């Protein structure tokens, strides 16, 4: 019976399709994290895109607005940091008896200072040091050239990846409604798919959107706090506090704690104490117990231990990209467990919960996608 239904042509098509699919995955594997970052970036800035759609009917313009805003923010921050570094470098070069002083000193005079305790004549010792330095430079020139070529190659690849991320994010935003509507068709049961996508949306909002907004608010408060206390380059320290707040194990306390230690070393105890105590209040307690609960939804409540493990544990296994992959994976599993719990209740509760899920964002996305061809 099985041999009668066997069709060699169909079997050949299936084998070819599987082989081509595997080869496609292989040649795209190097860009997997780029695709993931693009999808995550589009998801995070999608609320801004939706807000712009209320006033502008052009999807293309609404997708460009958050992308341009993020680019301007990063570019302006980079300019400020570069100007601060140049200013500090110029100050170092202006310090007397440092770099310029060492550059103008005669090497023979420096070696001559140790003449009483050495047996080699200062002139011969100077020549030996010069020959050694020339040999050292000559030996390491090929390695330096290779490093320069490698850095240039890596920088070129990074620029290409950034361009791909921006382009993919743009198209994901423009086609977001269609993508949301098509996601439900991937599930055997459409109602189960609605519940799962709604739970997944709530969880990812808590893990990414709420988390990112809380860290951003922490960075803004930190910049204002540093400015009020008279800390130089308060904007740069605020940006650094935002970056450190994104790392659960590190946290904002690393920045204001080190600043407090610095002011203790320079005997400015008032600024050190203000940084320490105000930092605990405004950069730890208020973000964790005031800002985050206000932003998070009750259904998206996730235990802090799970959040910590989701962000921190994968870093030790797959590297820095684990900060992104970890929450995505944990959030997916948590959404599946919550969906199973909702669907696995009594029939009456299942029907009511499923109906509530259909009335959520996924259903609105489906309705919008259906209305698009009519418009």
Question: Any key phrases for this structure?
Answer:
81% helix, 16 helices, 375 residues, disordered C terminus, mainly alpha, globular
- The secondary-structure class comes to mainly alpha
Percentage of β-strand residues: under 5%
Low-confidence stretches: 95-105, 346-375
Work out the helicity level: over 70%
Shape: globular
Order of H and E elements: HHHHHHHHHHHHHHHH
Mean pLDDT: 75
Task: Please report the number of helical segments.
Answer: 16
> In whole angstroms, how far apart are the ends?
52 Å
Rg of Cα set: 29 Å
Largest sheet, strands/sense/barrel: none
Tally of strands: 0
Oligomer: single chain
Describe the protein in words.
The chain is an all-alpha fold and 375 residues long. The chain is built from 16 helices and no strands. It has helices spanning 8-28, 32-53, 59-94, 99-104, 107-112, 122-174, 176-183, 190-228, 234-245, 253-265, 269-295, 304-312, 315-318, 322-343, 347-358, 361-374. Helix 7 (176-183) crosses helix 16 and helix 10 (253-265) packs antiparallel against helix 11. The longest helix is centred in the middle third of the chain and has 53 residues, at 122-174. It is globular, with a radius of gyration of 29 Å. Mean pLDDT is 75; it is low at 95-105 and 346-375.
């Amino acid at each position: 019976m099985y041999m009668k239904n066997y069709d060699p042509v169909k079997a050949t098509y299936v084998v070819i399709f599987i082989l081509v699919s595997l080869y496609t995955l292989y040649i795209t594997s190097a860009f997997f994290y780029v695709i993931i970052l693009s999808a995550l970036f589009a998801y995070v800035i999608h609320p801004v895109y939706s807000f712009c759609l209320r006033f502008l009917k052009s999807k293309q313009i609404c997708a460009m607005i958050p992308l341009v805003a993020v680019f301007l923010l990063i570019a302006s921050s980079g300019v400020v940091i570069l100007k601060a570094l140049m200013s500090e470098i110029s100050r170092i070069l202006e310090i007397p008896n440092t770099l310029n002083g060492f550059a103008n000193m005669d090497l023979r005079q420096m070696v001559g200072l140790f003449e009483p305790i050495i047996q080699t004549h200062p002139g011969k010792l100077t020549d030996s040091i010069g020959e050694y330095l020339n040999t050292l430079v000559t030996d390491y020139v090929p390695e330096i050239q290779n490093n320069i070529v490698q850095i240039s190659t890596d920088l070129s690849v990074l620029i290409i990846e950034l361009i791909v991320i921006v382009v993919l994010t743009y198209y994901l935003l423009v086609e977001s409604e269609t993508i949301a509507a098509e996601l439900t068709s991937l599930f055997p049961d459409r109602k189960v798919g609605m519940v799962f996508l709604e739970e997944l949306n709530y969880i990812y909002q808590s893990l990414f959107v709420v988390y990112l907004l809380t860290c951003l608010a922490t960075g803004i408060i930190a910049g204002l706090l540093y400015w009020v206390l008279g800390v130089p380059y308060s904007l740069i320290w605020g940006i650094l506090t935002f970056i450190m707040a994104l790392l659960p194990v590190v946290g904002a306390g690393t920045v204001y704690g080190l600043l407090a230690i610095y002011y203790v070393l320079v005997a400015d105890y008032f600024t050190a104490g203000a940084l320490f105590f105000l930092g605990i209040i405004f950069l730890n307690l208020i973000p964790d117990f005031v800002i985050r609960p206000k932003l998070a939804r009750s259904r998206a409540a996730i235990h802090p231990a799970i959040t910590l493990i989701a962000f921190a544990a994968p870093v030790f296994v797959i590297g820095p990209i684990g900060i992104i992959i970890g929450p995505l994976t944990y959030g997916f599993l948590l959404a599946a467990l919550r969906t199973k719990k909702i669907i696995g209740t009594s029939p009456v509760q299942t029907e009511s919960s499923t109906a509530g899920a259909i009335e959520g964002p996924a259903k609105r996305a489906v309705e919008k996608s259906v209305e698009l061809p009519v418009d």
